[in-house]
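Researcher: Next entry in the queue.
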Amino acid sequence: MRLLFASLASVGHTYPLIPLAIAAREAGHEVHFATGEAVHAPLAANGLRPFRPADAFYDIYAEDLEPELARLRPDLVVHEWGLPGAAVAAYRAGIPSIWHGFGRMFPAGIGLEPPVAAGEVPRLPHVDICPPSLQDRRFLATEERIAVRPVPYSEPGILPTGVGTRAGTPLVYLTLGTVFGTPELLSTAVEGLARLDAYVVVAAGRVRPEQLGDVPDNVTVHAWVPQAELLPYVDVVVHHGGSGTTLGALVVGAPQVVLPQGADQFANAEAVSAAGAGLRLLPGEVSADLVADQVARLLPRHGDGGHRDAARAVAEEIARMPAPQEVVRQLPEHLDRT
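Model: Structure for this entry, 338 residues:
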């Protein structure tokens, strides 16, 4: 079977599709991946045949993909939620397609068109990587879902010095992603976390590490870390509420303090808080004192344990979801849908 995956050219939209694409390739299917060149390197490294359709660099419109569909004639198109144009192109070409989510169904008003409103396209099944306990209730009740376990993905790398070797010292991971982080917010969070009896690893993202100045000895700042490799060692995750980091922390059962800034982050923060798997601080509430206080409540030696238990319960729920390899075996069932 020939499969075409398609995504916006960003880590947050491309990486969630990679585990299923790899599973399809490993099952012997021919896999191609349409997206902008910014994310080609990890796709090529995994044998997923990335290419940039037409003049698309970030978004892909139906007109961009139509010539590629005629060229490749895939048996199935797997397009992520951020690309309604790919759904339209596949439908016009008479090629079956399915949506692939990147987390919890995003709310209206964040700059993305809801995938269930793709114009001429009929309702399509959704590959859903969000555990049902955190998923939008209306989405669960109204959409056809193909549940698949979220598998954190990041480009391989070397873990920061000290990870896994500081026995008895809690590890706190701080990241604000690559879109919304600012030096001021990151500095405030670092100031609060530095007060704790913990080892703090910071992924600076869009903030240059030197913008944070000198940091205390228990804090190490990096432009980038291999997040998927780091998360199994982490005791608490402090982050922006991006879907990838939210799900990644839940996969390993780590409680979270979420500092949402935009897009779907506020909805993710609310869902994590409602599940008891973490805490949140809204933009007007963030201070070094409150960051330190919230994280201290979640640390294994000082916290009350309730949030950690809730996070582990979600991790167990995720572990029961079908693996990508199982879902790949279901994909031929969707070939007669146009």
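Model: The longest strand covers residues 2-6.
Researcher: Noted, moving on.
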